[in-house]
Amino acid sequence: MKPFTTEINTENGFLKNAHNHLQRRLSSMQGQYFDAAAYDALLKKEDTLVYEVYENINMPKVPGELYHGSSIVHPGKVGEEFFMTKGHFHQVLDTAEVYSCVHGHGYMMMETPEGEWAAEELKPGVVLYVPPRWAHRSINVGTNDLITFFVYPGDAGHDYGSIEVKGFRKLLVERGGKPAVIDNPRWAGV
Ligand code: S6P
Ligand code: ZN
How far apart (Å, rounded) are the C-alpha atoms in residues 65 and 43? Predict the structure, then answer.
């Protein structure tokens, strides 16, 4: 493989020459938002585009490679809960990831299988280190697109399993006009 460049548009997150473009609409996030009635009502109106990812992942799936790309979470809410990515653990749990925020305002919700959790604020200039073992989900709490640039090892993979079933332990919702962390009522054992 030869060195190559891509170019990120910091206003809209478009990654020129990216190898892959993924789009996730509301319909692909069934069961992910805690207010099921609000989700159904919104989906009935329109199958809104919630987030997009441009990625360079055409390298071998080996630890020495670095997959990278841009993630764009559009602004919006389902009930009180902000638009967000599905979120995942890495399949190879002991792999980290770096996120750099280039536009917008959001949070990264994170948790470990052992029950620790953390929510870090994302705004332009912030560089976030997601250590090995921490599941991560980007959440847009602003009125513009939340755009981040990410880099992770080529062998990491995605594990959506437990999160698709019960979500994260904590949710980020709007309370009194401000983002607030609350317990996820769907989380087993709560
Ligand atoms: C991959 C990295 C991102 C996410 C993307 C979408 O390790 O964290 O590329 O895949 O932000 O999120 P999700 O949870 O739908 O994969
Ligand atoms: Zn990841």
Answer: 38
Which ligand has its closest atom nearest to the C-alpha of 32? 1
Ligand nearest to the CA of 85: 1
Tokens of 112: 């470990």
| C-alpha span between 83 and 113 (Å, rounded) | 23
Distance 49 CA to ligand 2 centre (A): 20
**Distance between CA atoms of 53 and 149, rounded to whole angstroms?**
10
Parse the chain into domains and list their residue ranges: 20-187
Domain made up of 20-187: CATH architecture: Sandwich (2.60)
SS3 at position 135: strand
Contacts of 161 (CB under 8 A, 6+ apart): 89
Q: Walk along the chain (190 residues) and give the pLDDT tens digit of each residue.
A: 899 999 999 999 999 999 999 999 999 999 999 999 999 999 999 999 999 999 999 999 999 999 999 999 999 999 999 999 999 999 999 999 999 999 999 999 999 999 999 999 999 999 999 999 999 999 999 999 999 999 999 999 999 998 999 999 999 999 999 999 999 998 865 4
- Beta carbons within 8 Å of 2's beta carbon, 6+ residues apart: none
pTM here is 0.97
**How far is ligand 1, taken at its centre, from the CA of residue 14, in Å?**
16
Cα–Cα distance between 121 and 85 in angstroms, integer?
Answer: 15
